[in-house]
Specification:
5-stranded antiparallel beta sheet, 5 strands, about 35% strand, about 110 residues, Alpha-Beta Plaits, alpha+beta
């Protein structure tokens, strides 16, 4: 199985409203898939998600379509930095482990 871990650092606290609007649509899209597990957390301007998938194909189909694709296109307007990493695992890691894994993730700065 594949897990994707993502962090987003917002440009400011008021960008939380745009993030929330996108997140609601993305979660609706996610619930229509066959994902295995999902966790989210965030405070102030830093937010995290973890999603577990059966395989890479399902992960990519989700990431490159619908609300998720729309949000990715808008990310430069709300994010200062996005980090993401995809790992092979059968379960989602702890938040502490996820944050350590993100240190070696792909970084997008805006």
């Amino acid at each position: 199985m594949k897990a994707t871990i993502t962090s987003i650092e917002l440009k400011g606290p008021l960008k939380f409203f745009a993030l929330s609007a996108n997140a609601l649509k993305i979660i609706r899209q996610l619930k229509a898939t066959s994902y295995k597990d999902f966790k989210k957390r965030g405070v102030w301007t830093t937010h995290y998600t973890m999603t577990l998938w059966n395989n890479e194909s399902e992960l990519k189909d989700f990431a490159k379509s619908g609300a998720h694709l729309d949000a990715m296109k808008k990310s430069k307007d709300i994010a200062k930095e996005i980090r993401t990493i995809t790992i092979d695992t059968d379960t989602l890691p702890s938040w502490d482990e996820a944050k350590k894994l993100l240190e070696n993730g792909k970084v997008f700065k805006f």
